[in-house]
């Protein structure tokens, strides 16, 4: 059981001692230092949003860890943090890391587990006396969750050229603060943001360790797994147009009630996803006029659907749309469906994945995931792999997200083995 964040260890640069203790002791110290930052007292969840005070505290912690280990610290043109062992310019670097920001009232592990494990794995390798033949870097990618500006993986998307400076400048938070304004207020220069191919070209392999956001490892009885792919996923907006009318005086047979059609569509989505072994969720809805005594004129629902492969996802979404149209015809509703976003499947590089499996003894489970990651963004430009650590609750993006300290340490040792295998040849 990981100690609660209420009793943190004093925040100090005890890294050399931690390194001497190896990965397990180092993990414990690092985890408890970081745990109180951005934790909300009422919910017990984390509110570490990009370019806020909690984010700045996380970044200060990262920098202190880098400097106390004698690593070369730098911030790239997109505000991502880097800690280098060896020459950052030499090329063919082995890079590991994740993110420190959170969703609203997020869990402690999504992101921070990867960053903390990276420093702990380095301490483990130093305690083993490892000799590095390639540069090694630890990263903290900025704004991974997109909690503040509504777009996920901003730091890695910018670096990979998948988000332009112009588009990034249009991003605004709920208070109308733009991304460049937020960066500037946090002391970073937004002028320089944009694609960073030179930096990515210096990376020979990127390995992200992450808490599992599901229960596959719990069910298989394994502490650590390797990612095969990130499922393709998309968002579709369903607009059900009916006719507003009085909830008391309009006879049922005279109604054109889009809420009925929407409700039938939600049930269809659940059924089609279950049939296909996929997932489909209506998690957001807007209603007009949104009055308790009014039949709605418009119900707008957003479908998020993901599946292991493109064909399955297409099957599910096509079937949901077909069901929605059939109900709409019956209910006298006009339906419009718009695909708002789509991310194709990300297959992690097979050679690197096989290499990780070989390093870890050849019997590590290989799993797909329905969640997006910086590693998925970078995989377009860099050989990329992911390690997952068991999460017995299967819950993520919630304070119930959990990994036992034993399992976290198993993750640290697996990451250390992988980094040793890749960077110490
Ligand atoms: Zn994450």
Automatic annotation (TrEMBL):
Alphabetical list of CDD domains matching this protein: M20_bAS
Cofactor descriptive note: Binds 2 Zn(2+) ions per subunit.
Gene Ontology molecular function, alphabetical: hydrolase activity, acting on carbon-nitrogen (but not peptide) bonds, in linear amidines; metal ion binding; N-carbamoyl-L-amino-acid hydrolase activity
UniProt source species: Streptomyces lavendulae subsp. lavendulae
Taxonomic lineage of the native organism: Bacteria, Bacillati, Actinomycetota, Actinomycetes, Kitasatosporales
Gene designation: amaB
Residues that span the membrane, as ranges: none
Keyword Repeat (UniProt): no
Protein name: N-carbamoyl-L-amino acid hydrolase
Superkingdom field: Bacteria
Residues at which Zn(2+) 1 binds: 99, 110, 210
SUPFAM superfamilies, sorted: Bacterial exopeptidase dimerisation domain, Zn-dependent exopeptidases
Similarity section: Belongs to the peptidase M20 family.
Known cofactor(s): Zn(2+)
InterPro entries from the UniProt entry: Amidase_Cbmase, Bact_exopeptidase_dim_dom, Peptidase_M20
Residues annotated as binding Zn(2+) 2: 110, 145, 397
Keywords (A to Z) from UniProt: Hydrolase, Metal-binding, Zinc
EC number(s) given by UniProt: 3.5.1.87
Binding site for allantoate: 235, 293, 306
Coiled coil: none
């Amino acid at each position: 059981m990981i100690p609660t964040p209420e009793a943190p260890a004093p925040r100090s640069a005890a890294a050399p001692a931690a390194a001497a203790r190896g990965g397990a002791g180092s993990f414990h110290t690092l985890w408890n230092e970081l745990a109180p930052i951005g934790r909300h007292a009422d919910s017990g969840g984390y509110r570490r949003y990009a370019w806020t005070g909690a984010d700045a505290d996380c970044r200060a912690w990262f920098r202190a860890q880098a400097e106390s280990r004698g690593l070369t610290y730098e911030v790239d043109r997109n505000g991502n943090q880097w800690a280098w062992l060896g020459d950052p310019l030499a090329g063919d670097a082995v890079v590991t890391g994740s993110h420190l920001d959170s969703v609203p009232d997020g869990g402690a592990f999504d992101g921070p587990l990867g960053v903390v494990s990276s420093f702990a794995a380095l301490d483990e390798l130093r305690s083993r006396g490892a000799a590095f033949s390639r540069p090694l870097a630890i990263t903290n990618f900025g704004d991974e969750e997109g909690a503040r500006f509504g777009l996920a993986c901003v730091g890695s998307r910018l670096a990979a050229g998948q988000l332009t400076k112009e588009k990034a400048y249009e991003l605004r938070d709920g208070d109308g603060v733009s991304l460049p304004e937020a960066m500037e207020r946090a002391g970073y220069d937004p002028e320089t943001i944009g694609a960073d191919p030179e930096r990515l070209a210096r990376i020979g392999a990127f390995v992200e360790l992450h808490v599992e956001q599901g229960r596959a490892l719990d069910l298989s009885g394994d502490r650590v797994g390797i990612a095969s792919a990130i499922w393709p996923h998309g968002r579709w907006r369903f607009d059900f147009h009916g006719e507003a009318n009085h909830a008391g005086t309009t006879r049922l047979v005279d109604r054109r009630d889009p809420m009925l059609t929407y409700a039938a569509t939600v049930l269809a989505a659940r059924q089609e996803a279950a049939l296909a072994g996929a997932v489909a969720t209506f998690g957001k809805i807007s209603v007009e006029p949104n009055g308790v005594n009014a039949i709605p004129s418009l119900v707008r629902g957003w479908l998020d659907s993901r599946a292991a492969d493109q064909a399955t996802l297409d099957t599910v979404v096509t079937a949901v749309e077909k069901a929605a149209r059939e109900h709409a015809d019956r209910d006298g509703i006009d339906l419009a469906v718009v695909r708002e976003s789509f991310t194709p499947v990300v297959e992690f590089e097979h050679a690197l994945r096989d290499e990780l499996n070989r390093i870890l003894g050849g019997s590590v489970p290989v799993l797909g995931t329905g969640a997006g990651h910086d590693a998925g963004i970078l995989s377009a430009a860099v050989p990329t792999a992911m390690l997952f650590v068991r999460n017995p609750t299967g819950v993520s993006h919630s304070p119930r997200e959990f990994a036992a300290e034993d399992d976290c340490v198993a993750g640290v040792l697996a990451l250390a083995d992988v980094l040793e295998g890749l960077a110490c040849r």
